[in-house]
Design a protein that fits this description.
With about 350 residues, this protein is of the alpha/beta class. It is about 30% helix and about 25% strand. It has eleven helices and 17 strands.
């Protein structure tokens, strides 16, 4: 597909999007336009058909390339399991099956993806196949080589642990001109901090002179992730935000006052839809749970699940069968979709 400007019109909402796209997928029901440089993706029904509830393959894959982690965070939803990291050959197998339809991969698992022994090869193979790699890191022991490799990523997110390491890593990514996000877990304890960010205040100020801990003007986005009481997190249920906190954030988040973007995971978006009316561009860009509909998770030992929070016993499918078969016909995926079809703002995984 030529990288030329196109106008995509949504007649129902009377909105037109003008951009260049260098990757496109089309079938009889829908079409997807994607810009591999900016990350802009437009999915729409074809020939005035409604937008699809489920795509024929994922457009986003969360790939757990890391099998173990040394950080040992007390709230980690991945729990205490330890496995070998995913092999590069297995990663290639995944990309080769879905590269025509998947636009982005989120590299994750248990630990920092930039510490994977084949991190460079994984990122390069993704880009070679026009699949944009992204990842989240703690920022610990970040090397210059890892930063250089990360320049090929669409974006890098640093988890906000509130430590000097966090902010040093953010600034180093920003200095390297890498699109840099902060992942901030939305909990009972972080509610006030999250609300300050939404209202346009800078909570990242420290030191004697109260200077910024990093150049916030060059930050790309802050992404709020809803706390899930799973894995080690099951031992700290008090971390979950209460209904009042969810309601306040829902009423404020779509009116944020920042120089950077605000985002959220689908788990939190479910609550936004429950507490407030979503209109216009926000309605086009915000969706409820996409698990088994447009995204999926693959574990380090090659099991495919609707999402990384789903129960590994009930929802995982061994990848001895092709991804297309698992996605379209396996019972865990069809079951997950059935729940979402009946109750769109629910969580089939129980969160």
């Amino acid at each position: 597909m030529k990288n030329s400007a196109q106008t995509i019109v949504d007649k129902k909402d009377r909105i037109a999007i003008v951009s260049t796209f260098d990757k496109c997928f089309s079938n009889t029901d829908y079409e997807i336009f994607f810009n591999t440089e900016t990350g802009l993706e437009v999915l729409k029904g074809k020939d005035d058909k409604p937008d699809p509830f489920v795509t024929e393959l994922p457009t986003l894959l969360d790939i757990g390339i890391m099998g173990h982690c040394h950080n040992q965070c007390g709230f980690c939803y991945q729990g205490n399991d330890e496995q070998p990291n995913m092999t590069f050959e297995n990663f290639k197998t995944i990309i080769d099956q879905v590269k025509h339809h998947v636009n982005q991969v989120a590299l994750g698992g248990r630990g920092d993806p930039n510490k994977h022994e084949d991190f460079k090869k994984i990122v390069e193979y993704s880009r070679k196949n026009k699949v944009v790699p992204n990842y989240t890191t703690s920022g610990k022991n970040l090397t210059d080589e890892e930063i250089e490799i990360s320049k090929q990523c669409g974006a890098v997110a640093v988890s906000d642990y509130g430590t000097p390491t966090t902010y040093e890593a953010i600034q180093r990514f920003i200095d390297a001109d890498i699109k840099t996000n902060i992942h901030l877990m939305f909990t009972n304890a972080s509610f006030q901090k999250c609300l300050k960010i939404i209202l346009g205040y800078n909570p990242w100020i420290g030191g004697i002179e109260r200077s910024e801990l990093f150049d916030i003007k060059k930050l790309n986005a802050v992404i709020f992730l809803l706390f899930k009481a799973q894995g080690r997190g099951a031992n700290c249920p008090d971390m979950a935000p209460n209904k009042y906190q969810l309601k306040v954030v829902a009423e404020s988040i779509l009116k944020s006052r920042n120089t950077f973007k605000i985002g959220m995971d689908s788990c939190l978006a479910n609550h936004i839809f429950k507490f407030t009316e979503v209109k216009g561009l926000n309605k086009l860009s915000l969706d409820s749970c996409e698990g088994a509909r447009m995204s999926a998770y693959i574990t380090p030992d090659m099991k495919m699940m609707p999402c990384s929070f789903a129960d590994h016993t009930s929802f995982s499918v061994d990848m001895k069968k092709p991804i297309e078969y698992i996605w379209q016909k396996s019972r865990p995926f069809t079951k997950f979709r059935t729940v979402l079809k009946k109750t769109p703002f629910s969580c089939p995984a129980g969160f």
